[in-house]
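The aim of this short unit is practical: by the end, you should be able to scan a pair of folded records and say something sensible about each. We start with the first protein, listed as its amino acid sequence and then its structure tokens.
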Amino acid sequence: MGMDRAERLDPDRARDWLATAVAEARAGRAEGGIPIGAALYGPDGTLLGRGRNRRVQDDDPATHAETAAFRAAGRQRTYRGTTMVTTLSPCWYCCGLVRQFGISRVVVGEAVTFRGGHDWLAGHGVEIVLLDDAECVRLMRDFIRDHPALWNEDIGD
């Protein structure tokens, strides 16, 4: 499931892809939701699907950013070589999605405000690219400060 060193993601491409997820996070925040965004890219760099956490907007606890992007991508013959890009370290639910479908790489915007299961994914052969993006951190810190009860509900505390 891991990728060869020759296939390592170019840092500029990772940042470009993260911009898609950040746009989704901003849109979610503007809708009154949790500012987490994601995008799924194909092995050739094609954007397959994008989405945002819509738990608040849709009253659906299962619509996390990664699941929204995954669903928007539709059925793929294989997920080998695909990259899930997310503004925040993925929770266990979303890590399970990555493992279940064999997504090869996860680009993580930040793991400062929440450290999900990306280390577990790395231990199972998934390439992890952690960007420590300042805007992703700011989006989450502002949200957690302004809506602590909603944040605690979302992370299961």
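Turning to the second protein, read its sequence before its tokens, just as you did above.
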Amino acid sequence: MNTVTLSMGETAAAMPRSRVLRAYVQEARTECLRYLRMPGFLLPTLLFPSVFYVMFGILLGSANGPDVPRLLLASYGVFGVMAPGLFGFGVSLALERETGLLTLKRALPMPPGAYLVGKMSMAMVVAVIISLILLALAVFAAHVVLSGTQMATLFIVQVLGVLPFCAMGLLVGTLVRGQGAPGIINMVYLPMAFLSGLWFPLQILPEFIQRIAPIWPSYHLRELCLSAIGMGHGGVWIHVAVLASYTVAFVLLASRRLRRHG
């Protein structure tokens, strides 16, 4: 495994910069097309947060005051962008490890980082679509009033916010087998969404859940999204630092795992 990785690094170093850049672009393009052509992955990822927002943010939320659709826009935005990172990385990596595709990719004369960049690009493209759908529903259906700056900030936060969940999915994908990956990731995804206050406000949940909520990256991304639309509680850079720390830690742990076990 180390020999394969080393040869890839040497090959990438010997390639002209234009070919290295082209390799990154082609890998990203291939991953995006691959998942955009998989309705079994794409449709649930896009529909779940949209349907939940229509039900709870528009049909039910509007009757409880104008702040509810605004609040749930941030919450379901986070719920939406978690999925492409966790499932796009976690399930696919587990399957590719099990079928030997990852070993094949490592043996190819391509930059070693192109694989990760390709999957991150795919997750960010899906996050772009989710964020735009929810913003359109909030503005045109729920009549949420947002300035151009607030919409742009929320959009950027959500698209970049997929990265910690890409890193988490990367780690999970190194720990489980392909067949069990969807179930394991759902056991991470759904409880984390509930425990960080994405489905129900933390204020109405038991006190012990409120105390442990800050340990989840989804909680910190939600706080950043709330700040973007003028409903935050401050500490923006603390939340950014926590998410960055999670991302680095997950990537380092996953890299170590891959070096040892492939």
